[in-house]
Specification:
Layout lengths: L4 E4 L6 E4 L9 H14 L1 E4 L6 H9 L21 E4 L31 E8 L12 E5 H6 L3 H7 L3 E4 L1 H10 L11 H4 L2 E4 L1 E3 L6 E3 L6 E4 L4 H15 L5 E4 L6 E5 L3 E5 L10 E7 L6
Parallel strand pairs: 2-3
Antiparallel strand pairs: 1-2, 3-13, 4-15, 5-13, 5-15, 6-12, 6-14, 7-8, 7-11, 9-10
Bound molecules: N-oxalylglycine (OGA) and manganese (II) ion (MN).
Amino acid sequence: MTELDIIPSGKPAGAEIRGVDVGRGVAPEVMAQIRDALHTYKAVVLRGQKLTAPQQIAFSGYFGKLERHVIPQYLVPGYEDLVRVSNILDDAGKPIGLVDAGRIWHSDGHFLPKPNLYSMLYALEIPHDQSGKALGETLFANTAHACATLPDAMRQRIQGLRSANSLANVYRRMHAENAAKNRPPLTEEQKREAIHPVIRTHPVTGEKCLYVTRAATARILDLSPQESDALIGELADWCVRDEFVYAHQWQVGDLLLWDNCGSQHLAVGDYALPQRRLLHRTTVGGTETF
Ligand code: OGA
Ligand code: MN
């Protein structure tokens, strides 16, 4: 059996997988290795891919059941499972995709009772500055690493704690940081909070991961508001210390997969039209947390 060619980023998250042409179909044993690498490195990229929408959907489907995005109007026309992440406007001046995805450190679907297990972005257009440097990086931090390196006193303190997480909190944070654009009002269901353990167990690998984010975590249960805010800040910052962060610099043709239990991510918004960005996103659903 051929071994995958894996090049780690050198940071606690991130690796490149070489030698796989996803569009030609991937053998089950290669898929299994990609999945293992995803669990080890939390975010993996396969560069130079040429994918149609059905090919991306088929590949994503190997990892589990695909989920629709919470904001349905940005779907790729004709595909229920494929969302556009883009700053491009249509002829009427309306955004063709989600323009402000992920501008605060987060984990996809954190506010859901069954958070997204994996997400996948395929790059079709990537903005550049005048010197040709790619803009709009996505940053990744390894939350299993963050958990394993916690000081003992802190690990003991947060053992057994649970948090309340909501999309309303994500929007509140986005407005506070002036990062929200074109977001429709929340439905009652979307306002609901999801309760999750602060230290979450990975449903596949059993790894312990720190599961508190700046974006979604509204409060830690059973603490005073002051204690809760301070602890959220401390834990969220711990996860994303500079030296632990892998910055993914995009190229057209990149297919990037990440594990939403084992990582947090952040989209850097350092570009604007006429610099265009277009990616197609699929999401793999998850289970209840524990
Ligand atoms: C997302 C997301 C980051 C980016 O699609 O969930 O956070 O860089 N995107 O577009
Ligand atoms: Mn995201």
